[in-house]
Amino acid sequence: MPAENQSSETDTQATSPATAPYGGSGGAAAGGATGEAGATPHSPSRIRTVHLRRFKDDGRRFAMLTAYDAQIASIFDEAGVEVLLVGDSAANVMMGRTTTLPITVDEMLVFSRSVVNGVRRALVVADVPFGSYEASPQQAVATGVRFLKEAGVHAVKVEGDAAMAPHVRAMVAAGIPVMAHVGFTPQSEHALGGYRVQGRGDAAARVLEDARAMQDAGAFCVLMEMVPSEVAAEVDAALEVPTIGIGAGGSTTGQVLVWQDMLGMTQGRVPRFVKRYADLRGVISEAATAFADDVRSGTFPAEEHGF
């Protein structure tokens, strides 16, 4: 495992205010675990891959949300969310595309740098996009290096089955922490016949085989998407590394959602595995309507808004 991920839970080395971990000198982040929402007395000042493994060993769970900009990342970080995923879902929720396939490495690097700039404590993981790692282990390493060097993320996420194990092994050997993604893999939606649950019936053994192959290749965590709950539970029990679920039941060590789904920003059909914690789209729409009405009526700006 890379030395970057071997730090202890008391890792509080001095850093700049923009990157200082909780408990350091970083302004609003000062106060450490006892002063932060969502933190516990035993929370590390900076989440590392090794801490996720400890969470599983200790029977603790952790949360992961997507993030694509510094402001949202800062809010989730201060709320105590342990892992932030710069997902290639940015293609859908940030760029208006219908699939994740068109997003490029350069576009993902912009989103990833933005998230890193807003984070002090959370582990930041970035998706490597379609077409940037599949050709060879060498291509996978080159792409992973760009994310760590140019964006400053702490790890990358790779979609795929056991056939991708050599790519993951090469990345880990090069010092790139890798989270694996099995089950339904959105980058393969056309090959899989659309958004369909994976691992039903006889296909359950394949999910376990893929997860084990990724663990054996050195992945520090395995994310399972749209997998039957009982299959996900079997995989989690069989693996030493932690698992993360999205539409995979409650037996995984962590859970992840796309933040726009979780906060009610998206329209249309909501996936069955999504729980909405707010109607942010409604709040924003109401505020924008009130602003436009005030401008048209001359109510805004009032005298107190001028110089």
TrEMBL record:
Pathway: Cofactor biosynthesis; (R)-pantothenate biosynthesis; (R)-pantoate from 3-methyl-2-oxobutanoate: step 1/2. Mg(2+) binds at residues 88, 127, 159. It is found in: Cytoplasm. CDD domains: KPHMT-like. Its EC number is 2.1.2.11. It catalyses: (6R)-5,10-methylene-5,6,7,8-tetrahydrofolate + 3-methyl-2-oxobutanoate + H2O = 2-dehydropantoate + (6S)-5,6,7,8-tetrahydrofolate. Residues 1-16 have a biased composition (Polar residues). Residues 23-35 have a biased composition (Gly residues). It comes from the Bacteria. Residues 1-47 are annotated as: Disordered. Its cofactor is Mg(2+). Binds 1 Mg(2+) ion per subunit. The keyword rRNA-binding does not apply. Keywords: Cytoplasm, Magnesium, Metal-binding, Pantothenate biosynthesis, Transferase. 3-methyl-2-oxobutanoate binds at residues 88-89, 127, 157. The active site is at 225 (proton acceptor). Belongs to the PanB family. Catalyzes the reversible reaction in which hydroxymethyl group from 5,10-methylenetetrahydrofolate is transferred onto alpha-ketoisovalerate to form ketopantoate. This is 3-methyl-2-oxobutanoate hydroxymethyltransferase.
